[in-house]
Amino acid sequence: MNPTRAIRRFSFAIGASCSTRRRVNLICNISDIKLISTTVRAQAADELRDRILTGRLRPGDRLDLDQLTAEFGISRTPIREALLELSFEGLVAITPRSGMAVVGITPQDAVDNFAILAALAGKGAELATARITADELDDLRALAAAIGRSDDVVEANRRFHRAINLAARSPRLLTYVRQAQRVVPGNYFELFPEQERRSRREHAALLDAMEIGDGSEARRVMEAHVLSAGEALGTWLAKTAARDPGEQTRHETAEEATTRQTH
Q1: For 207-212, what is the mean pLDDT?
Q2: What is the DSSP letter of 17?
């Protein structure tokens, strides 16, 4: 199997070699995943990170290298490197005798992660307001308008935010933002479709502040924009964690989960 082909569906089960005394929960049934043109290792790391950040892989879940290798259709080396990367991020624990297991994140961890990203993104918006050119601002408006028309909202949103970060003209800030952005699940807008509509309104307010040169307001809008996204994820993780993990048979959106809980 060509490792760069789109992975259409994942099924992940724990074998007898990974049995433990505690109950293991693995819910990884995903379809139509679009892989970006990165290394095979990065693709595997991104997918596993998303599963952990959205609670599909829960703290304590065991990770079997052979089964992951078969699932992704790639060799053991990139899978091993991906898991090592996630261990450096504190999401996976690797021990000589116990093997590999998910450390995971709590709902508060999710909120804190986005708070860090908000501080960086807010500073980027403030710097960009002072340093952006008129042509770049026009391009930003075009990028913002394109989000609503795009077939790939995640990618369109990424281009918009990247343009702001580049306009800040701060290589160091850009490096930190790239690292912090890993806390945003790749399927965020699938989980929270209402956030897409909210984002468009906040993007418009951000651009208005940048156009009049109000860096403080641009920073405030951007920070609130990112913080609200983190709060939505934290609330959703808390609700899903309160349920019996064995009852979750498929990946729900936040709206579906809320509807089910109110009936």
Answers
A1: 97
A2: G
